[in-house]
Structure formats: C-alpha cells, structure tokens
Amino acid sequence: MTTHRIAVIPGDGIGQEVTPAALEVLDAVGRRHDVTFAYTPLDWSCARYRREGAMMPEDGIERLRAHDAVFLGAVGAPGVPDHVSLWGLLIPVRRAFRQYVNLRPVRVFEGLESPLRTAGPGDVDLVVVRENTEGEYSEIGGRLHRGFPEEMAVQEAVFTRAGVTRVLDYAFGRAGRRAGRLTSATKSNGIVHTMPFWDELVRERAAEHPKVAWDQEHIDALCAKVVLDPGRFDVIVASNLFGDILSDLTAAVAGSIGIAPSANLNPERAYPSMFEPVHGSAPDIAGRGIANPVGAVWSAALMLDHLGHERAGAEVVAAIAATLAATDVRTPDLGGSATTEEFTRAVIARL
Ligand code: NAD
Ligand code: IPM
Ligand code: MN
C-alpha cells in the first residue's frame, strides 16, 4: 500500500465544485491499485483573503512543501482584483517550486464535437509545453507610472539561458517519446526582442535531440494553423504568455475549456508539482453544480502519472473517454444537461 500526501486547494468558484470530483475519482482508482491519498484540505482562496487579508498564510509555501503534490481547483473571485489572487497564491507556488514546465495535453475525444470541421475524434492529440516561471510573467520592472498625462505601464520579459534551455529540453524529450515532432511558438521577426534568443536556444537544443523533427512558427500564424489543421501538431513549446493563450485555444478546439488539464511540473522532483485544470473559477456558472469536471479529473490523472502510477492515470483518461464515447452524459458546456456530480459518477462507473 502506497500513501501519497496531497495538499488540496479547491480555491474559488467552480474550483470548489470540480476539486471534489477529482478527489472522488482519485480515491476510486486508488482502491484498484492499492494507492491511498492523504489529503490536506487548505481553504486558501479569495474568501480567506477577505477574512484574513491574504490568500495563503505566510508559511504557505513551507506547508505545501511537506507534500508529494499539490492539487488546485482555481482562484479568482469578483471583487478581489485578479493580481491579488494570482500573485498571492498561484504564481508564487509555480515559482517557489520551480515548476518550470506547464504540460497541457489536448485530445478530441470520441463523442465530443470540436467546433472545427478539421478536428474529428482521434484527429488531434497534442501537448502544449508552456514555460511556466519566467518570460512575460516576470516580476521585474512591473510598474504603472502615473501622475503625468502620458501614463504608462511597463514590465520586463525575462528569458534566461538556463530557464529556456530546461523547458526546451523537456519539450524535445517529450516529443521524442511521442510522435517525434516539435513546434516552437515564436515571434522572431525582430519586433519582440526576446524571441531571437529563444530561437537560438531552440536550434542549440535541437542539435542535442537529432531524432526529433522540429520547426518554428510565429505565434500569430501558429494560431491560424491550429485552427485550420490542429491534427498536424504533436508537441508545441511556447513561452509563458504564448503558451497560456495557445492552451485555451487548443482546449476550445477539443470542445470546451472545461476539459483541459494541466501539470505544473518540477521535472527534477526537488519540489512538489502542482496539478490544476486549465480553466479558472468561472464565476458566471459557479454555485450551480454544472461545471465540467473533466479538466480537473484529467489533471488528477496527470498527477497519478507524476507519482509513478501511470497505469492508474491511463485508466482515468480511458474512463473519461469511455464516458464521452458511450453515453450522452455531458455537462452544459458540451451541450448536455448533466451536473458535475452526475458526470463524475459516470466516469467512476467506467473505471
Ligand atoms: P474561466 O476559465 O474561469 O472562464 C472562461 C469561460 O469558460 C466562462 O464562460 C466559464 O463559464 C467557462 N468555463 C470555464 N471552466 C469551465 C468548466 N469547467 N465547465 C464549464 N464551463 C467552464 O476564465 P476567466 O473568465 O478568464 O477567469 C475567471 C476567473 O478565474 C478570474 O478571476 C481569473 O483570474 C481566474 N483564473 C484562475 C485560474 C487558475 O486559478 N488557475 C486560471 C484562469 C483564470
Ligand atoms: C492559467 C491561467 C493563469 C496563467 C492566470 C490565472 C494567471 O490563465 O493557468 O492558464 O495565465 O498562467
Ligand atoms: Mn490561462
């Protein structure tokens, strides 16, 4: 019997609804594999911020560190500025734990309709590897200059040789274990000064991974190609902001942002990794019990992979796929009328 210690932060909005769904599925699949999870529930959220003036306690990072992994729902609530909720919890965790890879797989499941004609079931199976700790999301130089008519906001984008190299190596390695194709999202026509450096490092790392076929696309053209022919992509590696945008785009291509999972990984395992759906707290549907739990449940499957239970992880993804292929149980974002709970039951029944 293996027990993993998991810090659980449901957070805000639908984070409170999809997190229990993911834990139920984890417990169910764990029973089949002799794995148990010791959850530490943490109420870190905008509600806590309103109550106590901070999203998490001062020793929050230390407390998370004592766990094998972190599971997060989503943070963000109307009335609390997003920069408070995000810089107060999500971003510090990604940084403190050197979760420099944000892995975001995308599949068009059988039984789901992509809004695109070009993306039938089985046609799309790609992953976005997003740089997750630097780039456009840097803390350096972020300032709003007020007090004169030409107000301005500035922020430095930071691309370090070490930071870019490590995420590229991860992406090339992942491509090598998949279909062997890597696309680098760039904007190297000289307007964005950081990108020629990114490209230079891509060429450098490509030489170390000769079996991977790679190319690069300007981010604007890449968005168009993802819409026109998503099936051609295997691994897409991108900077923090480009990867953020691409992963909502690819999620929508697969049918709904509600189904997209993510793994914030520290590949060296020196720190806990964090698993969370790609979507946010969705205040527009929160509290109604109709959020799609697939993104959270699939994120739990990514956590199982990371913890060394790949078979259990694959079973969870297979149960999601079977539910979508063999039933018409769907949440409203996918055109159905099932609740979060009903969909979760259907997945557990197929484990
Ligand atoms: P969002 O992902 O919360 O919602 C975008 C749209 O997608 C909404 O219409 C929502 O109803 C729908 N949607 C999202 N997830 C869904 C699901 N599981 N099932 C069905 N429909 C779903 O993005 P947003 O509106 O840009 O942001 C809302 C809040 O969430 C903001 O405060 C934002 O900062 C925060 N946010 C947090 C995270 C995170 O914690 N990781 C990620 C993204 C956004
Ligand atoms: C995501 C989210 C976050 C990001 C926001 C909420 C800071 O959009 O995880 O994709 O941009 O990283
Ligand atoms: Mn995002």
TrEMBL record:
Catalytic activity of the protein: (R)-malate + NAD(+) = pyruvate + CO2 + NADH
Swiss-Prot/TrEMBL cofactor(s): Mn(2+); Mg(2+)
Keywords attached to this entry: Manganese, Metal-binding, NAD, Oxidoreductase
EC class name: oxidoreductase
EC number(s) recorded for this UniProt protein: 1.1.1.83
Domain Isopropylmalate dehydrogenase-like: 5-347
InterPro entries to which the protein is assigned, alphabetical: ICDH/IPMDH (IPR050501), IsoCit/isopropylmalate_DH_CS (IPR019818), IsoPropMal-DH-like_dom (IPR024084), TTC_DH (IPR011829)
NCBIfam families associated with the record: PRK08194.1 (NF006048), TTC (TIGR02089)
Family recorded in the similarity comment: Belongs to the isocitrate and isopropylmalate dehydrogenases family.
Descriptive protein name: D-malate dehydrogenase (decarboxylating)
Source organism of this protein record: Streptomyces synnematoformans
